Amino acid sequence: MIIGLDVGGTHTDVVLLGPEGVLARTKEVTDQENLVDTVLRGVDGVLGDIDPGKITRVVLSTTLTTNSVIRNTLTPVGMVVAAGPGMDPKLHAIGSSFHVVKGALDHRGAEIAALDKEAVKKAFALIREKGIRAIGLVTKFSVRNPSHEEAMEKAAKGLFDTVFCGHRLSGVLNFPRRIASCWLNAGVHDAFFSFSQAVKEAFRARGIIAPVHVLKADGGTFSLDAALECPGETVLSGPSASVMGAIPHSPSAKDVLVLDIGGTTTDMAVLIDKVPVLEPLGAEVGGVKTLFRALKSVSIGLGGDSELTRKGKELLIGPDRKGPALCLGGPVPTPTDAMAVLGLFEGGDRAAAFKGMETLGRDLGMETEAVSRFVLKSLCEKIRDAAFAMVEGINARPVYTLHEMLEGYVVKPEALLVMGGPAAVLAPGLGEACGLESRAVPDWGVANAIGAALARTTCAVTVLADTQRGFVRAPEEGYSAEAPIAFNMDDAIALAKKLVREKALRLGADAKGLEVEVLEAQEFSMMRGYRRAGRNIRVRAQVKPGLIRNGGVI
Amino acid sequence: MLKAKSRIGLVFFPAFDWAIDPSHPEREERLLYTQDQIFEEGLMDIEGIQEFKPDLVTDQDIQRAHFCVPDESTVTTSSHYVSAGGAKTMARELMEGHIEKGFALVRPPGHHAMRVVHGGRGFCNINIEAIMVEYLRSQWGVKRIAIVDTDCHHGDGTQDIYWHDPDVLFISLHQDGRTLYPGSGFMEELGGPNAAGYTVNIPLPPHTSEEGYLYTVENAVMPILDDFKPDLIINSAGQDNHYTDPITNMNFTAQGYAKLTEILNPHIAVLEGGYSIEAALPYVNAGIILAMAGLDYSHVLEPDYNPAVLKESKDTLQYIHKLCDRVMDQWSRRGPELSQKVFGKKEFHERSRSIMYDTDGIYEGQKEILRSCSDCAGSFRIESKSDRDWRIIGVHIPLNACPACKAQGEEWYENASGADKAYLQDRSRDLYLKK
Ligand SMILES: [Zn+2]
Ligand SMILES: [Zn+2]
Ligand SMILES: [Zn+2]
Fold it and tell me: Which of B11, B40, B42 sits opposite A107 (nearest CB)?
C-alpha cells in the first residue's frame, strides 16, 4: 500500500492506495510552522487500524522550499563565484555574502585564467567572519569543466557545514540561474534536513519502514536522502502533484489541458500523450529563476473564492480573495456563491449567497440567477483565455534547427481535465468555453495526492564529448574520462543512458520498467582550417516523468 | 533583478542542421559557441529581453526584393526562408510596438545577394535585410530607411538593390575592396542617376582597429544619418572585422563592436558574416546584445584581448581621417548636381556589367536601362543572361512611382520578348508578375 500526501498552502490532501484503488482519503489543515505535524496527522488520518508494516511507499510533496523562497527565510549563504568574460558577475549578486574571484573557463571548458586560490581563501575567511556556515560555489561554464568548482570545494572542506557546487545540480548552461539555484540549495538545506529527520523519526516511531520519497517540480520523485543533495528541486511540487494526478485519466496520444481550480488560483498545465510539458530551463519561484527541472505550469488569480466586484457595468472576478464565499461566512460574493444560487453548491447558507448575488445583479442590471450564470460563464472564459495563451506560449518557444522549425510539434489541446473543489460544477462550462471535451477527474478532491503517490523517480544527465580536446564529461555525475578520437554519438548516447539509469537507481527508482529516453543529441564537426579537428557531441538523457504501475489503479 | 533599459527582441536561429558544405566557413558549427555564451550568460532571462521564434518568409516577401531565376524555391533552401524570416519577425515585433530594438542572429547571411538571383554569391542567396526593408516599406509604410553595413565585406548585394532609390540610404564600411572579396565598394560607387550620393562606401584600410573604426562611425556615419533623418536604422551586423577572423584582415574587437552598436543605436541589427566562430562570435554577440539592452558590457573581453597590440599605426589613422573628410565632402554634394556631374543629363541611362556567383560558380551578364526621373526612384529594365542558359527580363517599377515611370515599366513588361521568362516587380501596387 502507498500513502500519498500533497502538502498545500492551506490544505494537505492525503490518500492511502491499495492495488484496487483509493482505500482512504483525508484533508488536513496545513500548519506552515510545523509541516512534520501536518504530515503525521495526514498519515494517521488515512492509516486507521491498518498495519503500518504493509505500507510499501510514502510520497509527499512539500511547500517547505517554495515558502522559504517566498517568505525569504533561507539560512544565510555565502557565495563564491568565478566568471571570466561576459557580464559583470556582480550583477548576479545574491545571498548574505557574495564574492567574485579571478579564474575563468571558456565555452569548451578550456581554462582562460587560473583560479585565484588566495582570493578564494580570503572570501572563505570573510564569509566565516560573518558567522555563515553554508556556501555555494559557482563558476561560469562549470558544466563544461568542473575543475574550478572542485578546487574551491576542496578548499572549503572543514570550514563550512553545508557546501553546494553549481555543476552538480544541472547540465544546462545558465550561469545566473546556476548561482541562484546553488544559493537556494544551500539556503534551504538545513531546514530540509531537520524536516527529513523529523519525518523519518516519526515514521519509524509509527512502524512505517517503507522508503519515503519527495515530489519534485518536474513531477518526479526522489528519496528523502537524495533530496538532501538537491533540496531546491522540491520547489513548486504542489502544481506537479496536480498534474501527475490527472495522468491516469488522460487519454493516450492526445494533447490535454489540465486545470486545477482552487480557492484563490487556478493552475494550468499541458500533457502530451500522458507526459507533462516541462519548462525549457527550470522553475521560477518568487522571482528567482532556477535550473531546477519543472513542469510548465501557469497560475492565474482566479478561483472559487475570487472576489466579485464591478467597474461600472463590467463584472470583475478576482484577482483578490477576501475570504471564503458569503454562503460560508465570508465578506464578499464569490463564484462559489453563484454556484450556491444555482443549486450547484450544497451546504452553507444559500440565503446569504442569494442576497449577495442579488445586489451584484442589481448593480449590473441583471436578475439574480442570470448574474450567477453570467459569473460562471465569465469565469470559464477567463480561464480559457489564460489557458490558450499558455498553449500559444509553448508553441512560440524558439527552436534552433531547421528540422524543429519545419516539423516541430505543435500543441493543440483536444480535451480538458478539471480538478480542484469546483471541478465537477465547472467542467461542462469550461468545455463549452474552450470548445473541447471536458470532464472532472474522478476523486478530484484528492487527485493531487494520488498523483504524488504514483509519481515515478525522474532525473536527467548531460554528456559532453570533445574529441579534439580528448575528453568526455558528465559534470552532474562527477564523470570525466578521456575520449578517443573515434568516440562517437552512439558511444555518447550509451554513456548517457547508463549514467541516467545509475542516477535514477541512486535517487530511489525501481529498477523494473525504468524508461530512459534521449532528449537531445547533437553532434558538430569542429573544423579548423579546412580539416576536421574533432567532434563536439552533446547528449541529454532523462527518465520520463510519469506514473509507476500500481495494480488496478492505473 | 536585471532589467534592460529598452525592450529588446532577439531571434536566435543557429540552423544547427544546415550548411553549404561541411567544411565551408558558413557551416553548422558557426553559431554553436555563440549559443553557448549567450545561454550561459543567461541573456535571454534578463527582464526586457525577449526571444522570438522566427517566421518563415513567403515567396511574395522575396519577390519584393528579387528577381529569382527561375523562381524562389530553386535558388534557396528552407534555411534561407527561416533566416530572412527571423529578420522579418524582428521588423514585425518592432512595428507592432512589442519591442524597441531587435537583433536577428540568423544564418545564412544575405548581403551579397543582388536584385537578380541566379544562385549563391559570397555564401548569400537572398538578401535578408532587403527582404525585411521591403516588408517594412510595403506593409508598414515606413518611408525613409538607412542601412548601415558593418560587415567586413562590401555589401554589394544590398548596394545593388538600393542603387537607384534615394529613400533607402545605404552606407557600407568594409575592408578596402582592393584587398578583399568582392572587390567592390569604392567611394566612386555612389548610387545611380536618380539617387546619386545615397550609396555611401567607406573602404577602410586593412588592420583598422577600434580607434579608426569608431572614428569613422562618429565622424562620417553619424553625421550622414543626422542629415538623412531616417525613420529607421538597420544594421547589417557582420562580425568579420574581428582580429581573429580567418578570412579578413581587420583588427576590430568585441569591445569595439559593442561601442559601435551603442553609438549607431540601430532599431534592428541583422547578423551577416563573421567566421571566427570560437574566438570572436561568442564575445562579439554577447557585447552587441548587452549594448542594445543598455547594460554594462565592459567585461565582455576576448580571452587574449590586448588593445595595445591591435592599435592602428599613425599612418593608418591619418588615412582614415582623410577618407572621412572625403566621404563627408561627397555626401554634401549628393542629389541632382552630383548626378549630372557623374552621369550627365539623359532621358534613359544604360549600363552593362557581369556578375560572378562564386558560391555556385555561375557567370551572369546584365544590361540595364533606367528612366531618368526627378519625381520617383525611376523604373528600370534588366536583361540578364547566365552561363546556365537562363535568359530573363526583369522590370522594376518603384514604390511611389510617378505616372510616367509606371507607364514606362508596364510598356517594358508588355513588350518583353526574346527571353525564357519575363518578370514585373511592380512595387507601386505590391505586385509580381511572371510570363
Ligand atoms: Zn560592409
Ligand atoms: Zn563578410
Ligand atoms: Zn518617376
Answer: B40
